[in-house]
Amino acid sequence: MTRSAQATGRAAQAAHEPAAGTRVPEVAFAMRGGHVALDGRRVLRGVDLRIETGEVVAVLGANGSGKSTLIRTLLGLVPLTAGTAELFGTPPARFRDWWRIGYVPQRLSVGGGVPATVREVVASGRVPRQRRLRPSGAADRAAVTAALESVGLAGRAGDPVGLLSGGQQQRVLIARALAGEPDTFVMDEPTAGVDAESQRHLAGTLASLVRQGRTVLLVAHELGPLAPLITRSIVVRDGVVAHDGPAQHGEGACHPHPGHEQERPHAYDVSSGPMSPGAPK
Amino acid sequence: MIEIFQYDFMVRALVAALLVGLAAPAVGTFIVQRRLALLGDGIGHVALTGVALGFLTGTAPVFTAVLVSIAGAVAIELVRARGRTTGDVALALLFYGGIAGGVLLIGLAPGGSNATLTSYLFGSISSVTAQDVWVIAVLTAFVLGVVATFGRELFVLCQDEEVAKVNGLPVRFLSLLIAVTAALTVVIAMRVVGLLLVSALMVVPVATSQQVTRGFRATMALAMLLGVVATVGGLTSAFYAGVAPGAAIVLLALAGFVLALGAGRFLRRYRAKEAGA
């Protein structure tokens, strides 16, 4: 579809929609019959899924279930052995609007020992929006400062990232994604090994993204304080989608106190209830 | 100090040393960050085949060294990107192939012998011609231009290749660019410190600098300064002491590293105390 046709389509659709002001959702991520094999091991075995813009989706599952591979495949980092994947309607190999996506990898790679300051790492999140040879401008600096403030690390901007705790490094990665001002966030285990303070910061950041209507796709082993923000959960088991439906916030899944998640270490246990009829297809 | 400038060959040597001192650590910072500290060594070995090929065909050895080391760097990069598990073995094979190829080809060259290669293996900065200085200057300008133009993207790439991919950066192009830039740096530094010690100028100033710095830019800037101090200082002291310049340059750089280890330990303890207070 051309851009103008898309815009016309949106306008037409908007006219039908009574709730004015809400954006018409696009399909952000799609996979049809997705199979992936890594070193001969079948990690994904026929995954179908469709995630629209504005959704806040948690991909849950045990270690080795294929949940990280699923999102890495959606981003084109892992090749499909069968099936198709699309990012905003385009196969990842031909996708060009990468500025739309803020990717938060599982952990910060500290490189070969060359130090980098917190600010330098966060500022590198602006690269998709910058032109070669043009020095960073006021807008870049403002975005970097805002990103640092939103994860509560403005005071550590000049410190080498290698000296930060695991949770703080996770916040640096999130700030790097925020700095690029994308509309879609993909986070690989943002809660893994993160201290309570960083979990709170993470929940706060995520809540503000949700308020702004951003799309969030995150992989988690445990949701902790993020649970109340999730609108839909996809449970992956042995490389297939075992459950896909609206997140259930009842029966203690949404803990107001982040300190309580130890009692329920596997948040996906509570969401593996009956298939919801309202699951988007 | 003044008498050193009375000799034309020393003036040329000093200019070459200054340029190499700037270029090698600039590329080296990215290479060390990418955990490819031995890349320079690999290219250096391959470049020897290029030098010998120059003698064999009667072409300028610098020219053939550029071509062959670029080919070698691209080969290393392709091996690294494809087969991850056997990457170091493939690198090693390339090392041996480069040396053996060089020795074999120089034997075939008219009047060539292993002695011909020695000046390239260990450097012969005092025999640098005006034309060599020009070649070194143009290559240095290219290397620094690449760092200035693609520095931000190379930082992302060397930090995390997958993030670079999701950022939409041309990962394959940037990987080849850094390999080619490293190859050119090897050829630039070949006359100054010799192929066997080239990598030292790419790695040692960076290793020294990162003992005391906090950021990437600061590390690169200090490494370039240290590189210039080592090359110019080493060459000057070699001139007065009558020792081999290449060795003097590398040993001076290593002495700086030992000093920085101590300074770094002191600095970290001081900063920890500051942070704790």
From TrEMBL, chain A:
Keywords: ATP-binding, Nucleotide-binding, Transport. It comes from the Bacteria. The keyword Nucleotide-binding applies. The keyword Glycoprotein does not apply. Residues 243-281 are annotated as: Disordered. Residues 252-267 have a biased composition (Basic and acidic residues). Residues 22-263 form the ABC transporter domain. Gene3D superfamilies: P-loop containing nucleotide triphosphate hydrolases. Belongs to the ABC transporter superfamily. This is ABC transporter. It comes from Sphaerisporangium melleum.
TrEMBL record, chain B:
Belongs to the ABC-3 integral membrane protein family. The chain crosses the membrane at residues 52-79, 91-113, 133-151, 163-182, 188-208, 220-241, 247-267. GO terms for biological process: response to zinc ion; transmembrane transport. This is ABC transporter. It is a multi-pass membrane protein. One of its GO terms (cellular component) is ATP-binding cassette (ABC) transporter complex. The lineage of its organism: Bacteria, Bacillati, Actinomycetota, Actinomycetes, Streptosporangiales. The keyword Transmembrane helix applies. Keywords: Membrane, Transmembrane, Transmembrane helix, Transport. It is found in: Cell membrane; Membrane. Its main location: membrane. It comes from Sphaerisporangium melleum.
